[in-house]
Every structure is written in structure tokens, then in C-alpha cells.
Write a structure and sequence with these properties.
The complex is a heterodimer of chains A (301) and B (412).
Chain A lengths: L5 H17 L17 E6 L8 H9 L29 E5 L9 E5 L8 H5 L5 E3 L5 E3 L9 H5 L6 E2 L9 E2 L5 H5 L5 H5 L5 E5 H14 L19 E4 L19 H10 L4 H28 L1
Parallel strand pairs in A: 1-9
Antiparallel strand pairs in A: 1-8, 2-3, 4-5, 6-7
Helix pairs in contact in A: 1-9
Chain B lengths: L1 E5 L9 H23 L1 H4 L10 H13 L2 H11 L6 H25 L8 H4 L6 H28 L13 H39 L17 H27 L6 H9 L1 H19 L10 H22 L1 H5 L1 H25 L14 H24 L4 E5 L5 H6 L3
Classes of the chains: A alpha+beta (301), B mainly alpha (412).
């Protein structure tokens, strides 16, 4: 390196600096995150739900998951324990005591909320998860590498992983019946619900409808629509007559879940200026030190 | 003038300790085999509430931090041009190269679909922190191997001697080594700087990784300055790791420890640890999270142990002159720093992670522990093998000839 001129040094250093850091500079092919005004949603009215669990059954049928016959779902004993969606059931209904009217327990259907700003989509290393124009957050089996970072990121603890599979384990979560809605059908659970506790429609309209319901029946609901603004808004929104946190809804802020992490990430990589600047700085320091050593050695002689 | 020259170690490979390590390694591989045959769920205690266990929290997160000696010594020796530290660069480089190799392997075994590990290379998601960490680690691993190449060429130029049928390629191979050596001599500075930049990037981003978990992470650890804390702790861990390793290697091969180099290195640890501690305490004060320390919980106990034994006590030790002069003092102080960062990564990724709807808390299974221990054992065995084949550990020599590496730095 001794006979290399200063100009060469700087030229090579700059070139390599841009190639090394520029490697990932074309990352703008970020996942689709289109927020259409006409995106769909579901309004869940927990005061209407009777806990018949038909939605659980039809969901499994629609997604080719193993299920016992529909009659077995009449057994209400499973409602005694709190259950969570997993890789074998994409949606479950839980039951909570109603302190006002003990005869009418509160039933809460749980599934992916289909966030407007999904943490899983932001987190996914290969962009296997994406927010679609119609509101659904879906998963692409051809991309997924099974790192499970989406599960770490999700504020609702929804994505599930097939831990028992050695080959091609999947991430399982509600896909808002993407295959059905593509054909013009409505999500299986909203179709089967016998009491219309879950309503499928444009999210914007549903939010308005929810507030109208609260206005019309102030004694029936508490004045809050869960999912309207939680983590920046979700496609599925809920009405209840009891504090949401007492029904095992997570207590979340109004900022989108990936907000802070994306801000840090984009700050560190702002147009690749910081890494390139660091590279240049270190190159400069190295060059100065090298020359100083050289002069020292020459004076010693 | 007494000079240190890197030389392959000459000693019997097999010792009782080596055999014990080999047993641990084999045990780990058996469990690893089970993981590939029966799936992750069969071997680990992971579930839908706990997607990540010690294979990520320790093998990957702590593994990356413990390999920080590579870029800190490269920065000190090559970029700051402190020639007196050249004796410790090679062992640190070897540790980093081995460490990162095992990080990559650990990621791979933890992936549900390991055969798709190349996907991030062509499927990019710029907003994903994990994507950035993954790409940086992949490139850095290549850079580390390139930085290691001169050691290979130094060892084998003029000594390529393959037996039998392979005899014919002896000459071309030697030529190739010479070309490599020449090319690398001119361009090495590019890779050295790139290595430091890449390290700074992914060491910090490893901290950003858990930011997205938001309220699922205990407030004692969840902070927007996690990337800064991760970078500062990695930087302050670099030299203690080198000191610790150097002392162990010297003991293992019956050499006199290079105590003056090590105590000079040690004198740089206290300021670095001090900065880390200042940010850690400052962050706690600003966010007011010290209230969580008033009650005794797993989180508060682990946080206190991490800060007291992993930062404050070694900081005090490294400030003392007596400690700096004694090998045993340096060994203990360095070990505490290593322990502190190790525990910090464990805390950040596992202890602090309290998911909603948790039925039972996570504790690693025997299979998980076996694989992790097996990997560490295997790594030590490979390290021992490498220092016996390649000129890595410096031994005193009566000669004015400089090591090849100092030539590369440009002090000709």
C-alpha cells in the first residue's frame, strides 16, 4: 500500500464505500402497504354474539384445517378456559362473565385484527406478509423462511407457527378469507354467523355505524370502539358493554406499532448517508494515522 | 529488540479438556439431528407465545456481541494504527470469524425453513430490522474470511504439498495463493474499514430488533435508545473478550501472557464501560423506569445483577492499577464484562419479553441448552485446531522482522 497514491486510496475507498453500503440501497421494493379508502373491515358486536362457535367451524372448513363435525361445537364446556388462535384454529370465541346480567355472558371472537399499519408486515425479513388493498394482511408461503419475527412483532400475539413440522412449517393466521373475497364472496365467518354479530363492510362505514350504535343505545355499550385508533387503526373493530382490557384486549397506544422501530431504522440509513459518512471518516482517520507513522519513521532514521 | 511473531502452536491436540468438550459437542449434534427430523417443537420449549428462545437470544444476539473483539481490535490496530497491538489482532480475528460462522449456523437451525436462508438476498424488505441485520452479518462474514486469508497465504505459500493425485495442482495452488496475497496486500484496508462500518451497523441494529415488540418487552429494557446501548456495550466488550481469550490461550499452551499489551488494552475498557453505564443510567432516569427496581421481581433482580456485576464492578476493577497489572485481576474483570453483556442480551431477548396471554413462562429445554453448549464447545475445539495450524498466536522472537500484518497497515 505504500506506493499507492493518496488519490487512489480515496478513490477506491469511496467506491467501495458506496458498493458495500449501497448493496441494500435498493430496498425500496418494500411490501405493498396500500391503504385504500375502500378497504374492508368487520364490526364485531360482542353484545350480540351468543358464543355458538359456528365461525370457528366454518373457518376451519374454509382453510382446509382438520375439524370435528359441526355438532361437536354445541359443547360449551370449552368456553370455560381462555383460548387463543393457533396454527390449528385461526379464530376462537372466548366467554367472559357479565357482571350486570349474569345470564348473558359476553362472548368475544378473536382473530387477526388486520392492522392498517401492521407490525408483522414491517418486521418480516423477506416481505412475506403484506397489507392488501382490500384491507387483508396476508402471508406468502413462497417467501417465508420461518424466522418468526412477525410473532415477536405482533402486538395482538396472533401469528402462529407450526412448531411440530420439520419440513415446510407455515405461519398460520386469519387471512380475512382472501381467496373468498377475491371471488366476490364475503369472509366465511361473517357469512355463517346466525345472529349477525359480525358485519362485513367498508371500514369507514363500519366505524360510523359503530358510533351510531353507541349513540342510539348508550346503555348497551361503553363509549369506545376498539380498533378505531389502536396501533393506528385495525380492520376489525369491536363494541362491548365492558372495559376492553377486562376482556383480554391488549392495552395499546394510538401510534402504529412499527413506528418507532422504522423511525430508528430509517434514521440510521437515511439515504445511506450515515454509513457512507462513517466509512469516509474511518478511511480518513486511517490515512492520517498511516502518514503520521510514516513521517515518524522517517525522522527516526 | 524483542518482537512478537505469530506462530502455529506446537502441542498435542488431545487433552482431557478437549475430550470433554468433544463429548459436549457430540451431545449437541444429536439434539440438532432430532430438531431436523422431528421439528423445532420437538426439541425446544418454544410455543406461539414464545417464538424466540436461547438459540436466538444467546447463540445469535450474545454471539454477535462476543465476537465484537474482531472489529474493535481492527479499529485500534489498523485504523488508529497502534502497532503495539498487532499481536492481539489475529486471535481476535479468528474468534470473530468463528463466532460469526456459528451465528449464521444458529440462525439457520432456528429458522423454520433453513433451506430458504438465501431468500433475504433477493427478497428485500427495507423496513425490516431483521433484514438489515441479516444482510450486514452475511457481508461481514465474507469480509472476516477475506481478512483471514492473508494468514492462510502466509502459512501455505511455498509449502503447498498435497499428496497423491492432487500433486499436480500443487503449483497452480501456490500461484493462486501468491496472487491472492499480492492483491489483498493492496486492498486490505478497504475490507478493514468495511468490517468496522458493518459491525457498527448490525451491532446497533441488533438492539433495534426488539423495539418493535413494544409493550411486550419490560420497560426496564424497552427504550428507543436500545441500538445505542447495544453498540456501546459491544464496543466495551471487545477488549475484555480479547484479554480473556489471550490469557486462556497462554495458559492452555504454556506461554507467558503478553501482560503489558493486555494491561494497556485494559486501561481502555474503563472509559468505554463508563460511557455505556452513563447512557444506561441516564436512560433509566429519563424514562423513570427505576420505579420497577423497588419491587423484587425476576425482571428487577436480573436487571440489578446485569448492571452491578456486569458493568459497575468490572468498571471499578478496570480503574484499579493493581488489577491492570495482574493476570488474575484482568481475567476476573474481563470475565465480568463478558458475563454482563451476555446477561444483557439474554435479558433483552428473553427475560424482558413478556407476551400477552402467556400461559407459562419460557425456560430453555434440555435440547436447546445441549445445542447451545455443544456449539460453544465445538467453537473452542475449532479455535484450538486453528491456532495449531495457522500462525495466529504471537510468541516472543529475537528478530526485527515485523509481522506481515504490520506491513499491511502501511508502516513500511
Amino acid at each position: 500500500m505504500g506506493n499507492q497514491s493518496r488519490r487512489d486510496f480515496l478513490k477506491t475507498a469511496a467506491l467501495v464505500g458506496t458498493t458495500v453500503t449501497g448493496f441494500s440501497s435498493k430496498t425500496k421494493a418494500a411490501p405493498k402497504n396500500i391503504l385504500s379508502e375502500d378497504r374492508m373491515g368487520v364490526l364485531v358486536d360482542t353484545t350480540v354474539c351468543i358464543g355458538c362457535r359456528k365461525c370457528e367451524w366454518v373457518c376451519k372448513i374454509a382453510h382446509n384445517l382438520e375439524t370435528p363435525t359441526i355438532e361437536t361445537y354445541d359443547d360449551r364446556s370449552v368456553l370455560k378456559n381462555m383460548r387463543r388462535p393457533n396454527d390449528k384454529a385461526l379464530t376462537v370465541v372466548n366467554e367472559y362473565q357479565n357482571t350486570d346480567q349474569e345470564k348473558f355472558p359476553i362472548n368475544v371472537k378473536v382473530q387477526c385484527m388486520h392492522c392498517d399499519h401492521p407490525a408483522c408486515v414491517s418486521a418480516c425479513i423477506v416481505g412475506a406478509l403484506s397489507k392488501q388493498e382490500n384491507g387483508s394482511v396476508i402471508w406468502d408461503t413462497d417467501k417465508c423462511i420461518g424466522c418468526r419475527y412477525c410473532m415477536v412483532a405482533c402486538p395482538f400475539q396472533i401469528p402462529a407457527f407450526e412448531f411440530d413440522k420439520a419440513l415446510k412449517p407455515d405461519i398460520k393466521k386469519c387471512d380475512f378469507c382472501f381467496e373468498r373475497t377475491k371471488e366476490g364472496k364475503i369472509p366465511a365467518c361473517t357469512e355463517i354467523c346466525p345472529v349477525e354479530a359480525i358485519t362485513y363492510g367498508r371500514r369507514e362505514d363500519l366505524v360510523k355505524a359503530a358510533h351510531q350504535k353507541i349513540k342510539n343505545y348508550p346503555n348497551r355499550y361503553i363509549n369506545r370502539v376498539y380498533g378505531e385508533s389502536e396501533v393506528g387503526g385495525t380492520s376489525w373493530i369491536y363494541l362491548t358493554n365492558k372495559e376492553f382490557e377486562k376482556l383480554d384486549f391488549p392495552k395499546l397506544g394510538k401510534d402504529p406499532a412499527p413506528g418507532v422501530s422504522e423511525a430508528i431504522q430509517h434514521g440510521i440509513f437515511a439515504y445511506f448517508v450515515p454509513p457512507v459518512a462513517l466509512y469516509a471518516l474511518l478511511g480518513g482517520v486511517m490515512w492520517i494515522n498511516k502518514n503520521r507513522k510514516k513521517t515518524e519513521n522517517e525522522t527516526e532514521k | 529488540m524483542e518482537e512478537f511473531k505469530p506462530t502455529p502452536m506446537k502441542k498435542k491436540y488431545l487433552t482431557p479438556v478437549v475430550i470433554a468438550l468433544a463429548v459436549l459437542a457430540v451431545n449437541g449434534f444429536l439434539f440438532l439431528l432430532a430438531r431436523f427430523v422431528f421439528g423445532i417443537g420437538a426439541v425446544t420449549n418454544l410455543d406461539n407465545q414464545h417464538p424466540w428462545g436461547i438459540w436466538i437470544g444467546l447463540d445469535v444476539a450474545a454471539g454477535v456481541a462476543l465476537a465484537a473483539g474482531g472489529f474493535t481490535t481492527a479499529a485500534l490496530g489498523h485504523i488508529m494504527h497502534k502497532d503495539q497491538y498487532h499481536a492481539i489482532i489475529r486471535p481476535a480475528l479468528l474468534t470473530a470469524a468463528l463466532g460469526y460462522t456459528f451465528v449464521a449456523v444458529s440462525v439457520m437451525i432456528d429458522l423454520g425453513r433453513p433451506y430458504f436462508i438465501w431468500h433475504p438476498l433477493i427478497m428485500w424488505n427495507g423496513s425490516s430490522v431483521l433484514f438489515e441485520v441479516g444482510i450486514c452479518v452475511m457481508i461481514y462474514l465474507v469480509v472476516l474470511y477475506i481478512e483471514f486469508l492473508p494468514i492462510v497465504t502466509e502459512r501455505f505459500i511455498g509449502r503447498v504439498n498435497l499428496p497423491g493425485v492432487l500433486k499436480r495442482i500443487n503449483n497452480p495452488l501456490d500461484k493462486l495463493l501468491r496472487i491472492l496475497d499480492k492483491g489483498l496486500e493492496k486492498t486490505m484496508f478497504i475490507f478493514i474499514i468495511a468490517g468496522v462500518v458493518l459491525s457498527c451497523l448490525h451491532q446497533s441494529s441488533l438492539g433495534t430488533l426488539m423495539v418493535i415488540a413494544g409493550p411486550k418487552m419490560h420497560p426496564l429494557w424497552q427504550t428507543p435508545i436500545l441500538p445505542l446501548l447495544f453498540l456501546l456495550s459491544a464496543v466495551s466488550l471487545g477488549f475484555p473478550m480479547v484479554i480473556f481469550e489471550s490469557l486462556i490461550t497462554s495458559r492452555s499452551f504454556g506461554l507467558k501472557p503478553e501482560i503489558h499489551i493486555l494491561s494497556n488494552l485494559g486501561s481502555m475498557v474503563a472509559p468505554l464501560l463508563g460511557i455505556y453505564l452513563a447512557f444506561k443510567i441516564g436512560d433509566m432516569m429519563i424514562r423513570g423506569t427505576f420505579v420497577y427496581l423497588t419491587t423484587i421481581t425476576t425482571a428487577s433482580v436480573m436487571y440489578t445483577i446485569e448492571l452491578l456485576f456486569g458493568v459497575i464492578i468490572p468498571l471499578r476493577m478496570f480503574m484499579s492499577r493493581q488489577v491492570a497489572k495482574s493476570p488474575i485481576g484482568l481475567l476476573i474483570a474481563s470475565f465480568l464484562v463478558i458475563f454482563g453483556v451476555f446477561l444483557n442480551r439474554l435479558n433483552n431477548f428473553l427475560v424482558a419479553y413478556t407476551p400477552p396471554y402467556e400461559v407459562h413462562s419460557y425456560f430453555p429445554s434440555i435440547g436447546e441448552i445441549s445445542v447451545t453448549v455443544g456449539f460453544i464447545a465445538f467453537e473452542i475445539l475449532l479455535f484450538r485446531l486453528a491456532v495449531m495450524i495457522f500462525p495466529i498466536v504471537s510468541v516472543p522472537e529475537m528478530s526485527t522482522q515485523r509481522t506481515k500484518y504490520s506491513v499491511k497497515g502501511g508502516a513500511r
